[in-house]
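Give me the fold.
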Amino acid sequence: MNLLLKNVRLVTATEQTDPQDILIRGGHIEAIGTDLPTAENAEIWDVAGACASPGWLDVGTQTADPGYEHREDLHSVIYAAAAGGYTALASFPNTEPAVHSKSEILYVLNKTGGEPVAVYPIGAVSSGCLGKDLAELFDMHHAGAIAFSDGQKSVQDAGLLLRAIQYAQAFNGLVINIPHHQTIAGAGQMHEGVASTMLGLKGLPALAEELMVQRDLSLLEYANGRLHLHLLSTARSVELVRAAKKAGLPVTASVAIANLCFTDRTILGDASAQGAFESNWKVLPPLRSAADVAALIEGLADGTIDFIATNHTPWHDEAKNLEFPYAEFGMIGLETAFALACTYLHEYLSLPQLVEKLGLASRRILGLPVSEIAVDAKADLTLFDPNREWTFTTQHIASKSKNTPFVGQHFRGKVLGIVHRGRVVRNF
C-alpha cells in the first residue's frame, strides 16, 4: 500500500501543524514534508481541509459477536468503527457465550487479526457476566484481554467487584464498571425529572448512578487497584470523581457522546412532533438534565473525565421499533461520535483536546501506546475534516443495526477515513 496524503494538518493531543504531505509506503510513514514528490504507484489524497491524527480507540463497544450476529458481527463493527475514524476498539464481553475465558478472548483476536481496525477484547469480571462467580481473569489477561468488565451488566455485588480489583492488581489489570444500581433504577425509562413526569414515563433517578459511584470509589480506596468508571451522566458523579482524583485515588472516568450533547428534554421535544417518544433516544445511561450536561462538559474540560466513548449499542429493528417503554436501551454511535463532538462541543474543546478525548486518552488508560506521526513509524492514522458540512443518511451506516436518531441530521465535522495495518478505508 503506497499512499501520498497531500496538504493535511497534523493534529496531536497538544498541537496542530500547518498543512504537510505524508508519504506512506508498505504500511510505514516514509516521509513528512511540504511538496513531497509523487511516489511511484502511490494513490494520492488531496482533500481540502483534511487533518490527520494518531488513530483513535473506542472503549466499551458492543460487538454482539459471538451469539447475536443478527445485530452486529466483528466484520460489520470494524467497518462501522472505520467510518467513525476509529482504528481500534476495546470491546465489551456481553455476547453469547460471554467473553469470560481465554477461548473467547482468542476467538475475538483470531477473527480480527487481519482487519484494518484492531479489536482488543475486554474480559468479563464474572462468569457469563452474571455477577456471581469471578471469571478467569489471569488466564484471560495472558490470552490478550485488555481490561475486565461485565460491560452493560453493571457489577451489583460489592464483594465481587472488590475481589476483581484486588485480583487484577497482581498484573496491574484495569477493572471497568458502569455505575448503575439496578434495584434503585428499577423499571426506569428515562431521567427522573420534569420531562419524565410530563411524558408519563417512569423516571430513572440520578441516585442509581451516584450511589454506585460512591460505592465503587470506597472499594477502590480499600483495595488500591485500578478502576475505570464508565459512562458517567450526572453532575454529582462528576463531583465525586473529581474529589477522588484530588485525594489521589487511581480512578479514571468516561462519558458517552450523547450525554454531552443532549438532555432529557430532547425526548420531550420529539414527543411534540411526528414520531413522538422516539425510542432511539432511549439510552443507558439516560439523557440527563441541562445542569448535568454542563457539569459533564466541565468535567471533560478540566480532566475529571478522561475520555469520550461512543456507547455503541446495536439493536435489530424488532428491539427498537417499539413503544418507548418496551424498546431496549441503546443506540449505535461509532459512525456519528466525531460529527456530534464537532457540532456540539467545538466551543468547549479545541481540536487537539477533542482528538485527545475522542481516542488518545483511552489508549493511555488501557496501557496502549499512542501512535506516532513520524518517519519510520507504522501508519496508524485517522483522517478527518473538522469543518465539513454534511447530512447523515442511512448510507453512512456501516453497522448491521440502524438504531440511531440522527438520520437526516446536518452535521459539522466528518471523518474522511483511516490508515492502519497497511490498509486504507476511505469515507469520501
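The CA atoms of residues 28 and 379 lie 5 Å apart.
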